[in-house]
Design a protein that fits this description.
Pfam families: BTB. The protein contains 13 helices and 12 strands. The chain is an alpha+beta fold.
């Protein structure tokens, strides 16, 4: 039986003024190989009500059940932390590997002097993981993640990120139209097999023209390559980034964008998401789209977008 606990703090800057919708993702570090790493995504699409938490093991499948208990507390400027969520979920090999839970944000928006000093929200996470159905004996491992862009232990990726942000010691220029951004071949190749193949055939050229990505989307992808985090990504940007991640075979980024798209499915965009997920072979996002359609059938079927979708995607539409 494998049991462990991961505890860490996560800070969100400018919390009360974040544009809606917003999403923030991060991967807590772990020193264990027995349990998979977890991707946590915080998402909000309303002004006062809930922050949704998506927790997802970063593996395609699991061979045995994984029990995860998540406790979230808000750190106050005085007094003890306030628990805002205490929930558990059992991941099983036969079920989708996504857990959706939430906490309310209204209370600490009201008392900003206590919870949002300088508009900085500090969340304290405790993740208990077990491959048994009981979490009775926990081996404790503590981490502190002070922000999306920093880590308690400095790594070589932190150094490369600093070089990227300062555009120093870069060995490749990526050109989009009249704009150019510099990066490090090693980072791009380690994240994307498409970049790896591209640079293996062009070892002497230090400039690459990128014709299939706009600069904003390219910078979002580079940000994730160096940090494995994306902050304040709206739906339209996530849609573009999802397609680019699929094209460049960057699976971790595609999964992240898939979670954002899944949490933002609406009647007005479900056809676009369904078409995209089907073309990219994303069964989980495709299933989420179908589930939304079935729950909102009268509304979706009355739309002109759906009628056009059916005409051009007969077989796919028939699955709904």
């Amino acid at each position: 039986m494998v049991i462990q606990r991961r505890t860490f703090n996560y800070q969100i800057n400018d919390f009360s003024s974040l544009p809606n919708p917003w999403s923030i993702s991060f991967i807590p570090d772990s020193v264990y190989d027995e349990t998979p790493p977890l991707l946590l995504t915080l998402h909000s699409s309303d002004e006062f009500k809930n922050v949704i938490i998506y927790i997802r093991p970063l593996v395609k499948k699991i061979d045995e059940s994984l029990l995860v208990k998540c406790i979230v507390k808000v750190l106050a400027t005085k007094g003890s932390p306030v628990c805002i969520m205490n929930d558990s979920h059992l991941f099983s090999p036969s079920m989708p590997l996504v857990w959706k839970t939430s906490f309310k944000k209204f209370n600490f928006l009201v008392d900003q002097n206590l919870y949002l000093k300088n508009d900085l929200l500090t969340l304290q996470f405790e993740l208990n993981l077990s491959n048994d159905i009981e979490i009775s004996s926990i081996e404790h491992v503590s981490y502190t993640i002070p922000s999306a862009s920093s880590r308690r232990k400095k790594t070589i990726m932190d150094d490369l990120l600093q070089f990227y942000e300062k555009q120093k010691y870069c060995d490749i220029k990526l050109q989009v139209g009249n704009e150019t951004v510099q990066a490090h071949r090693a980072v791009l190749c380690s994240r994307s097999p498409v970049f790896q193949e591209m640079f293996e055939t062009e070892t002497t050229n230090n400039k690459k023209v990128i014709s299939d990505v706009d600069m904003t989307t390219l910078k979002h992808m580079l940000q994730f390559m160096y940090t494995e985090n994306i902050e304040n990504l709206n739906f339209e940007n996530a849609l573009k980034l999802y397609s680019v991640a699929d094209k460049y075979q960057y699976e971790a980024l595609r999964k992240q964008c898939s979670l954002i798209l899944s949490s933002n499915i609406q009647s007005g965009n479900v056809c676009e998401i369904l078409r995209l997920s089907s073309g990219c072979g994303d069964d989980e996002l495709k299933t989420s789209s179908f589930n939304y359609i079935r729950l909102h059938a009268n509304e979706v079927f009355a739309l002109g977008d759906w009628k056009s979708f059916v005409l051009n995607n007969v077989l796919l539409a028939s699955e709904a």
